[in-house]
Amino acid sequence: MGWFLLRRAGAALIVVALASVVVFLGVRALPGDPAVVLAGENATPKVVEAIRHQYGLDQPLPVQYVDYLKQLVTGDLGTSTQDKLPVSGILAERIPVTLELAVLAMLVAIVIGVVAGTIAAARRGRFPDYVATGFGLVGLSVPHFWLGLLAILLFAVKLRILPASGYVPLTDDPVQNLRRMILPALVLGTGFAAILMRQTRSAMLGALSADYVRTARAKGLSGARVVGVHALRNSLTTVVTVLGLQLGGLISGAVVTEQIFVIPGFGKLTVDAVLTRNYPVIQAVVLVTVVGYIVVNLLVDVAYAALNPRIRLAGAADG
Amino acid sequence: MADVLTPARLAPAATGSGRTRRMWRRFRRRPMAMTGLVLVVLFLLLAVVGPVVFGDPTRIDFGHVLGAPSLSHLLGTDDLGRDQLTRIASGARVSLEAGVLSVALAMVVGVPIGLVAGFYRKHLDSVVMRAVDVVLAFPFLVFAVGLAAILGPSLRNVVLALGISQIPAVVRITRGEVLAVREQDFVAGAIADGATDRTILTRYVLPNATNALIVQATVAIPGAIIGEATLSFLGLGVQPPTPSWGVMLTGAQQFLSQAPWLAVWPGVMIAATTLGFNLLGDGLRDVIDPRSAR
Q1: Which of A28, A146, A170, B195 could serve as A177's disulfide partner, Cβ 3.0–4.6 Å?
Q2: Is B145 in contact with A255 (Cβ distance < 8 A)?
Q3: How confident is the model at residue B37 (pLDDT cuts 50, 70, 90)?
Q4: Which residues lie across from B83 on neighbouring strands?
C-alpha cells in the first residue's frame, strides 16, 4: 500500500507541475502585452510599467516561471485587477461556499442515486426498475442550467415557497442559508444521482448474481438483508469510483449552478473573472481547480485501493 | 497455401456489409435505440432544413413582444419580438455545428496520435500519455472557460475549446484499441507477410478501432452540444444575436415570470437531442459489443 501511494502521489505531482506550466504559459499566450492585460482596463502607462516590473515581465520566461513558483509557494496568488484585493483572500472567502454546495449536492446524489439504483436492481425488469431507469436516462440528458431555470420557475415563481436566488452565509443564519441552498443542491445533485443510479444498478445486478449472495440466500437470510448488507456493501466501490470520475463534472456543474442562483462561490468568481478579463484571478482559479482536482482524484484512488485490494495488487504487477 | 493464410482472410473484417446488416437487424429490435435514432434524425432534419424553412431568426415582430404561444408564433416570441420557433431551428444548426465540428476536430487530431502512441509504445507513448494526463487534469468546463478567456467568446472558439478538451479521450480510446489489436494473430500474420507499419495501421488496426470511436462520438457529440449551450448560457460562447439554445435560455432567465415559455422550449430541445444521442449510443454499444448489453 505504501509503495502504491508513493507512486500515485509522484505521478500526481508531475501532473501538477506540468499543469502549472500550462497555466503560466496560458496567461502569457494572451493576445497583446500581458502587462497591459494584467493591469486591467484604463491603466496608465506608468501603472503598466509598474506591473511589468512587479510581475517580472521584463525577465526571460524561465526566470519568470521560477519567480511565479516562488510566489505560489508563499501563497501569493497575485492581486485582482477588479478590486485590488489579494486573490488568495478572495479564494479563501469563495471556496467554502462552493464546498457547501458540492457537499449538499453529493448528499442529494448519493441518497437518491444509491437508493433508486438498489431498488431498480432488486426489482429488475419490473415497474420500479423502469421508472428508475427512465428517470436516470432523462436525468443524464437534462443540462444543469435548464433544470435550474425550471426549478426557479416552479418553486420560486409559481409556488413561491423558496427564494429564487441569493446567499446567506451559514454562520450568519443556518436556516436562511439552507433555504437558499436547497434548490441549487437539488439541481446540481440530480444529474449525479442519475449517473450513480445507473452505476449502482449495474453493480448491484452483478453482485446479486454472485456466489456469496446465493450462499447468503441459501442460508435463509431475508431478501432485504441480502440486498442491504451483502450486495450493497460491495457496490460501495462503485460509488467511490463514480464520485472520482464525476468530480470534473461536479466542478463544472457548480460553476453553472452558482451563476443561475447568484451564489457568490468559486464558480461565479470564475465566470465573472473571465467576463471582466481579470487575469490574475483566472490564473489562480484554474490552478487551484487543477490542484484540487488532482488531489481529490488521488484520494479517490487511495480509497478505491483500500476498498478493493485487487486494484493495488494489479498496479504493483504492472510495475 | 498463401491463399489460405493471408492476413486479410484472418482479419475479422470490420466493415463487411453482411456484418452491418446483422447489426442493423439487432439494432432495430431495440425500442430505446430506435427512439434515439428517431430523435437524432429529427434533430438533424431541424438543423439542416429548419433554418431554410423558417427563415431569418433575427426578424422582429413589434406587435408581439414577449408574446405567448399563438397561431402566428407557435412557441411565442421573446423580449425583442423574435419568433421562438425560428430561433430554435437556427439554434439547432449552431448546436449541430458545435457538436459535429468539435468531435471531428478531436478525432482528426486524436486518432493519429493514439494510433502512433499505441503502436510504437516506448518513449513516444509515455510522452503522449503524460500530455493527455495534463489536459485531463483540467475539468472540462474549466478548460473551456480558460480557452474562452484566452481566445475570446465565439462559435469558432467554442468548437476549438470543446474539440481540444475531447482530444485526450479520443487518444486514450484509440491507443487502447491499438494495444488490444496489435497483439492479435492477424497483425502478427501481416507483419510476417512483410506489411509496412503504415499498411498495418490503416488496414488492420484502424478499422478495428472504428467501432469504439463511433460509440465515443455518440457520447462526445451530445457532450459538446451541452458544452456549447452551457458556455453560451454563461456568456462565454456564441454571442447574441446568433440564436444558440444556451443564449436563448440566458435571455429567458430575465423574463421567467412574464414569459415562462421562453425558458421551456430551448431546454426541451437540448434535453431531447442529448437523450436521442445517449439512447443511440447505448444501442450502438449493445449491438457492436453484445457482451456489454445489460
Answers
A1: A170
A2: yes
A3: very high
A4: B77
Element (H, E) at B146: helix B140-151
Nearest chain B residue to A278, by CA: B149
Question: How confident is the model over A272-300, as pLDDT tens digits?
Answer: 888 877 778 888 888 888 888 888 878 87
Question: Rounded to whole angstroms, how far apart are CA atoms B246 and A144?
Answer: 11
Q: Which residues of B touch A148 (CB under 8 A)?
A: none
Interface membership of B127 toward A (CB under 8 Å):
no
- Of the CA atoms within 13 Å of residue B157, those in its CB half-sphere come to 19
Phi, psi angles (nearest 5°) of residue A236: -60, -35
- pTM value surpassing 0.90: no
Query: Best of B141, B218, B258 to disrupt the A interface by mutation (most A CBs within 10 Å)?
Result: B141
Report the distance separating Cα B281 and Cα B37, nearest Å: 9
pLDDT digits (tens, 9 = 90+) for A138-156: 887 888 888 888 888 888 8
Residue B27: the pLDDT is 82
Which of B134, B148, B256 is opposite residue A15, by nearest beta carbon?
B134
Q: What is the predicted ipTM?
A: 0.78
Per-residue pLDDT of A65-86, as tens digits, reads 888 888 888 878 877 877 778 8
Which candidate in B129, B134, B275 is best for mutational testing of the A interface (most A CBs within 10 A)? B134
Nearest CA to CA, how far is A64 from chain B (Å)?
20
CB contact under 8 A, B271 and A256: no
Integer Cα distance of B43 and B96 in angstroms:
8
Q: What is the mean pLDDT of residues B115-140?
A: 78
User: How many residue pairs bridge chain A and chain B with CB atoms within 8 Å of each other?
Assistant: 133
